[in-house]
Design brief:
Blueprint (H helix, E strand, L loop, with lengths): L4 E6 L2 H17 L5 E6 L2 H4 L5 H4 L7 H8 L5 E5 L11 E6 L7 E4 L14 E3 L3 H10 L4 E3 L5 H10 L4 E5 H6 L8 E3 L13 E6 L3 H7 L5 H17 L7 E8 L2 E9 L6 E9 L3 H29 L1
Parallel strand pairs: 1-2, 1-3, 6-7, 6-8
Antiparallel strand pairs: 3-10, 4-10, 5-8, 5-9, 11-12, 12-13
Helix pairs in contact: 9-10
Length: about 300
């Protein structure tokens, strides 16, 4: 009898969808293998009255899942890669990533069809400093309102809190069958996605070579190349949760194009550039783009944001 595979996952409907998607792939590849989901509540899920920047960053969504793997309670964890810090704790690896879905951000509104049609002083909900920075750089008149919680909670707040619009990930809405709520897919030129956005990753212990072999067929080569470039960019910047950072890579043939951005939360400062190179050298490309932005002034900005966050 094959050893059961236990998947640690957050309890939100989107996280459960992603974990079940991986479970279904495992059951299909390995008939007869029992695959169980272990839903857990993470610290990031429990604290909803403060921004992620204020409580320690996106790593709070995966800490408990990693502890379950260390304790031998779970074998792997399924994540949205945008929630995974650029540098993993020692002893863990991303064993596989699935093919990326639509990485763009979604403009969701009851009263307005497009971002460009928002009235002066419109109230827009998002707790992402990355989105806030870019939206304000285009529209400094907007009033950005904090928006935490799962997808359904945030959609509810659109009307209950009198917001003109909210911005969510396209992939999350579509995976939950809520794509009909999208009024506009925001162009990456308007809102560059988060590092790893729309990518589902599977994490396990570095020493679990059996599981890594089982997960090998899951890997999507082009997504891996893009993700390596984006995560190398973020890792070299060393940005904290107080730092609006965005990166998005696309692969065409054997070439990779990477766009990266660093900005201030108020959108007043924005450092942005693109680079192109061989897809096999994604990590080098990400580091080179980060170096370019650091030299252009992003380094001083990041230092000031880190200092402000430590106060």
């Amino acid at each position: 009898m094959p050893t059961p595979i236990r998947i640690a996952t957050r309890r939100s409907r989107l996280a459960l969808w992603q974990a079940e998607h991986v479970a279904a792939r495992l059951r299909s590849l390995y008939p007869g293998t029992e695959v169980r989901l272990l839903p857990m509540v993470t610290e990031g899920d429990r604290i909803l009255d403060r921004s992620l920047a204020a409580i320690g960053g996106k790593g709070l969504f995966i800490k408990e899942l990693e502890q379950a793997m260390l304790a031998g309670v779970a074998d792997l964890a399924v994540h949205s890669m945008k929630d995974v810090p650029a540098v993993l704790p020692e002893g863990f690896t991303i064993a596989a990533v699935l093919e990326r879905a639509d990485p763009r951000d979604a403009f969701v509104s009851v009263r307005h069809a497009r971002f460009a049609g928002l009235p002066a002083g419109a109230r827009v909900g998002t707790s992402s400093l990355r989105r806030q920075c870019q939206l304000l750089s285009h529209r400094p008149d907007l009033e950005i309102r904090p928006l935490r919680g799962n997808v359904e909670t945030r959609l509810g707040k659109l009307e209950s809190e009198g917001l003109d619009a909210i911005v969510l990930a396209v992939a999350g809405l579509e995976r939950l069958g809520l794509g009909g709520r999208i009024r506009e897919h925001l162009a990456t030129e308007l809102c560059l996605p988060a590092v790893g956005q729309a990518v589902i990753g599977i994490e396990c212990r570095t020493d679990d070579t059996r599981l890594q072999a089982l997960l090998a067929p899951f890997g999507h080569a082009a997504t891996v190349s893009c993700l390596q470039a984006e995560r190398a960019f973020a890792a070299r910047l060393g940005g904290s949760c107080q730092s609006p950072i965005a990166a998005h890579a696309t692969q065409i043939g054997a070439r990779l194009q990477l766009g990266g951005l660093v900005g201030s939360p108020d959108g007043a400062q924005l450092f942005q550039a693109t680079r192109e190179g061989p897809a096999a050298e994604g990590e080098r490309l990400g580091i080179a783009l980060a170096e370019e932005l650091l030299a252009a002034g992003a380094g001083a900005l990041l230092d000031s944001l880190r200092s402000a966050g430590a106060d």
